[in-house]
Amino acid sequence: MESIKLSTSQARSIILDAAGLAKPAQFGHGIEAVYRLIDQLGFVQLDTNYVVERAHHHVMYSRIPDYQPSWLAELVDDGQVFEYMMSDAGYLPMKDFRFSLPIKQAFADKVREVDRRMEDLMSDILDQVERDGPVMLSDFENDRTEASTGWWDWRPSKIALERMYLEGKLMISRDQKFHKRYDVPMNLVPQDIDQRMPTPEEFANFTIRRVLGTLGVCSVKEIAWRARRVKGNLVKTELAKMVQQGDVIAVSVDELKGPLYMLPTQEINPQISGEVFILSPFDIVNVFRHRLKEFFGFDYQIECFVPASKRLYGYFSLPILAGDLFIARMDAKAYRKHKILLVHHIHFEEVMLSDEMISKLVTALMGFVRFNGCNDIRFDRTNRKDYLCAIAKGFS
Question: What angle do CA 279, 76, 100 make, to 5 degrees?
Fold first, then answer.
């Protein structure tokens, strides 16, 4: 099938539309919108960092203005959504459950054999959960026999629980304090959910459709990244078949390196509202740094993993999107006890902001303050005092 030529501007619009950022409330309102969002994205990355509201809630709020964090837990409890480590830890629609099975099998095949004591511990824990219901790590005594040697030096019960979770013998739900509860799948997966292991072809086909539906326009490398835990996956083979059959369209974008792909159901020229979104670093739009640079001209890196002395913009800077243009990044921390959102650094990109754009940014900032349980916002540093003064006037 002949490829389609897109401008960079068209590609940006397609990417934002697929990600649910073409306009505010693209998925509607209420808890139903949360499910529609997760179903569209296929995967919402989970992160425990609580500098501002946790990443998975932040992703929801960016797209659902009336979002309540309790809604995500409700969907998990109702069996509509589940948590698992696909490419990363995150939330997925329960109807996709069977496509987590190859990942679980890959974990089971990869991990090294354990000694008899660990086998017995895992067996005992599984028996306990099946008999008495879900457990938490705090239910087990500190069973460490030697002093800890570092951050990832887990004690035996933690290793046992996490291994059984990765292999699919246990699943995770969360309490109100975000602590993990480990339970057996039969207690969390509805009976009408298909639990058959997909064939390698089915898994590859599913991965291709899911990733293209989420990213809009992307390369085979980005598609295969979602299936990287399954060695010998058939993503490249099945992609070639799907292009030949017309189920996937090959596209070229200006001078960007290809080949690139999209689904034939994706609208070519979606309208972008021009509204301002304050995004999580773990938002699907921000996951691939090279895509931000190639399609949006935005050179971004989350710097919480960078040594403090080498950080340019701050520990947890949040990308700020206006329409199809990244206009700034904001390193912020919510001081919930004092109800203040402190912006350590707001750095503006080399763009000209109109009065209308600044007004929309103020509106977005006001909403973000409330979302983080705060009443006020303070700014420490910026590279554009004129823009910051305009923002301050908008708050007055």
Answer: 85
Res 8 pLDDT > 90: yes
Q: Is the distance from CB of 270 to CB of 14 less than 8 angstroms?
A: yes
* Residues across the chain: 396
Domain 99-144+151-188 listed as CATH 1.10.10: yes
Q: Are 268 and 10 in contact (CB under 8 A)?
A: yes
Q: What is the mean pLDDT of the chain?
A: 94
Helix-strand-coil percent breakdown of the chain, rounded to 5?
45, 15, 40
Gap between the Cα atoms of 287 and 302, Å rounded: 10
- Rounded Cα distance, 41 and 61, in Å: 14
Mean pLDDT of 380-389: 97
Distance CA(283)–CA(374), nearest Å, equals: 22
Span between the terminal Cα atoms of the chain, in Å: 57
Task: Give the mean model confidence (pLDDT) for residues 235-244.
Answer: 97
The residue-averaged pLDDT of 43-66 equals 96
Domain ranges in the chain are 99-144+151-188, 301-395
User: Nearest-CA neighbor of 212 among 256, 242, 237, 178?
Assistant: 242
**What DSSP assignment string belongs to 210-241?**
HHHHHHSSB-HHHHHHTTTTSTT--HHHHHHH
